[in-house]
Fold:
Amino acid sequence: MFHTIIIAGNLGRDPEMRYIPSGQAVTNFSVATSRKYTDNNGQQVDETIWFRVATWGKLAEICNQYLRKGSKVLVEGRLVPDKQTGNPRNYTRQDGTSGASYEISAQTVRFLSTRADDMAGQGTGDSVPGAPADDSDEEIPF
Structure:
């Protein structure tokens, strides 16, 4: 038997890396996937699903080094169920509504953002090589 899940979304926070007692690296991060659709009543619905992602070994070190909050990624892996129920983990939000948390053990993580995209999203103030200076009066011809 076999199952796999593929998601594409944005990191909700910076990755967190740690080492287990055997010395293997583990990096965890959250990914938000979203979609917009119109329901039966004609109302626009924005739906966001959060996934907790765990990466291991060399992949964990690479993810920790290059990913940041807001980075776009494609993750391929397997769902990890709650050990007690065999289902996603259920929880109650601060506003009293219920939610579910899905965990993925990643086998592949593809970086969809460029490093310049990530830097621009963080507002670091660093310039992108080849980009005009902020005080440039030149107009873009397209």
